[in-house]
Design brief:
The complex is a heterodimer of chains A (221) and B (304).
Chain A: H1 2-6, H2 8-40, H3 45-59, H4 63-76, H5 86-116, H6 119-127, H7 132-162, H8 174-185, H9 188-217
Chain B: H1 9-26, H2 39-42, H3 56-63, E1 66-70, E2 73-74, E3 78-80, E4 87-88, H4 90-101, E5 109-113, H5 119-124, E6 130-136, H6 139-142, E7 145-154, E8 156-161, H7 171-176, E9 182-185, H8 189-194, E10 201-204, H9 211-215, E11 221-225, H10 226-235, E12 240-242, E13 250-257, H11 261-277, H12 279-286
Parallel strand pairs in B: 1-5, 1-6, 9-10, 9-11
Antiparallel strand pairs in B: 2-3, 3-4, 6-13, 7-13, 8-11, 8-12
Helix pairs in contact in B: 1-3, 4-11, 4-12
The chains are: A mainly alpha (221), B alpha/beta (304).
């Protein structure tokens, strides 16, 4: 256990990077996922096609490949972020990859929520003169959100664990700092246990948030 | 009866005759070396073969074949030639020198594909007779297997873009230029070593992954063992170059079964002779020499 305690700073910096990846990719995926879900149910066929294409490509590609693409192919194509250090540069690329990978899962969760709202709700909204955007944001989504909280939290928990893949692509997040500690201390078991506990801290917290939000938005029917 | 390396020439010649007879007796193959043309007799710088009945050397010579564990995926040290299917590299050349001393023809060597994690098990379970597979000698491993050699002192070095545009001189250069990033594999000894010079490190999933950040300008160099780096440089010929300034020492040894002191000490004799005769340097120039300079001095074998 001293192996962990003596090098707590390394593990903590990894933990913070994991949290940062989760926060940025999580918010990014929620925003992008909502847009994609909106496109998916929109009345315009080409927009629906774009949403379907994006969802199927990224949902069905292994995350490692997506991150490989963001870490190696994007810079190869000339993507640069001036002013960022190399470590920050690859952090941003990893966050982009995680966002692109996670958004389709969010979109599908939201779409399932939208589909769970009786079509009469949309028809009623249209009949009082609301357009598609208003119908979606004022009538359908507020009801759909209640349904989709558990699946979205599921996706975020998966994202938390998925951030560890970024450890293989120049981001020294929690898993990579765990590997670093194992090399330094040759104490694999305590280090891996500590890493597992830290992941649990994040994922269990997400689970608690889920049940809290669920109660908040619950509607007595 | 047991012969040591310090026997007189008379004794050794006697042993040679015994071995010659054993070789003849043990081999029905027409290509088996006969005592007249035995290479051990021809090359004057080589030790006579002071081994006798019951030793591993005698058994191997009698069998006319030897199983050598080598890597098949490490360019310049042990890499399977896709065209011929035979392994090539410096480790392989070392194996040929040893087999040659036993009077075993190159064609009769059985090369066994060995990866880092099965080097000890292969020796312990008699899957191979010796292991020559970029095998670093250390105390933990000495509890499991015996080591002849070292036949090469590897070390952590730095690989830079061809022409060394940044003018990097060694690890100290990164202490003086803290804004320059160096790339290496996370969770490796290399990252710990370079960490003593700089904290501006890009930690990758593998050493090969480090080449792309150099190409796109995020990092200026990659660091790890010169053996691995030479493989990367070789696979991307003309794009990268090795600084040839190693700053750590990793002695590479030839693994033998733990208790076989005779074999270990005999291989040490063979290595010493190969150092003196220039055969070692020739093997180097023919293989790794294209990327790593010939070391200034030959290694000193460790007869522990």
């Amino acid at each position: 256990m001293t192996a962990v305690l003596d090098n707590l700073d390394i593990l903590v910096s990894g933990f913070l990077l994991t949290l940062a990846l989760l926060a940025i990719a999580g918010v990014g995926a929620l925003v992008l996922g909502s847009i994609v879900a909106g496109l998916r149910v929109s009345p315009i066929a080409p927009l629906r096609a774009i949403a379907v294409g994006y969802t199927e490509i990224f949902r069905n590609t292994p995350l490692t490949l997506v991150l490989l693409g963001s870490a190696f192919v994007l810079p190869f194509l000339g993507v640069r972020f001036p002013g960022l250090s190399p470590q920050q540069f690859y952090f941003v690329l990893a966050a982009i990859g995680l966002t692109l990978y996670t958004a389709p899962f969010i979109a599908e969760a939201i779409r399932s929520g939208i589909n769970s709202i009786p079509v009469g709700q949309a028809e009623a909204a249209r009949s009082i003169g609301l357009d598609f955007g208003q119908t979606l944001t004022l009538v359908i989504l507020p009801q759909a959100v209640r349904v989709v909280v558990p699946p979205i939290i599921n996706v975020l928990i998966a994202l938390t664990k998925n951030t560890s893949v970024a450890g293989g692509f120049f981001v020294v997040e929690m898993f990579a700092s765990g590997r670093l500690l194992i090399e330094r201390t040759a104490q694999a078991v305590p280090v891996l246990l500590a890493v597992a506990v830290l992941y649990l801290v994040v994922t269990v917290t997400l689970g608690l948030i889920a049940s809290f939000v669920e109660k908040k938005v619950a509607v007595l029917r | 009866m047991r012969f040591r390396s310090t026997r007189t020439a008379k004794f050794s010649l006697g042993a040679l005759a015994v071995v010659g007879a054993l070789v003849l007796a043990g081999c029905t193959d027409s290509s088996a070396p006969d005592p007249e043309t035995d290479p051990t007799e021809e090359s004057s710088g080589m030790p006579e073969v002071p081994y006798a009945d019951g030793t591993t050397m005698a058994d191997l010579a009698a069998a006319g074949t030897i199983r050598i564990g080598v890597k098949t995926d490490q360019p310049l040290f042990g890499l399977t030639n896709a065209a011929t299917g035979d392994p090539e590299g410096f480790d392989v050349e070392m194996g040929k020198i040893i087999a040659d001393q036993l009077g075993i023809d190159e064609a009769n060597i059985e090369w066994v594909n060995t990866v880092s994690s099965n080097r000890e098990p292969f020796l312990q379970t008699d899957q191979v007779d010796i292991v020559i597979a970029t095998y670093t000698i250390n105390d933990a491993r000495k509890l499991l297997v015996g080591f002849a050699g070292p036949y090469y002192i590897a070390g952590q070095d730095i690989l830079v873009a061809a022409g060394n545009p940044e003018g990097i001189t060694g690890p100290e250069w990164f202490s003086e230029n803290p804004d320059k990033t160096i790339c290496t594999q996370t969770g490796s000894t290399s990252i710990t070593n370079i960490g003593e010079y700089t904290s501006n490190i890009l930690a990758s999933g593998s050493y090969a992954d480090c080449l792309e950040p150099i190409r796109n300008g995020q990092a200026v160099a990659v660091t790890t063992d010169n053996v691995i780096l030479s493989g990367l440089a070789y696979a991307n010929e003309g794009e990268f170059e090795l600084l040839n300034a190693p700053f750590t020492e990793e002695p590479y040894g030839i693994g033998v079964p733990l208790e076989d002191t005779e074999l270990r000490s005999w291989i040490n004799d063979v290595l010493d002779a190969a150092f003196t005769s220039g055969e070692w340097a020739r093997a180097w120039e023919d293989t790794v020499g294209v990327v790593i300079d010939l070391p200034d001095s030959t290694p000193t074998v460790d007869r522990y």
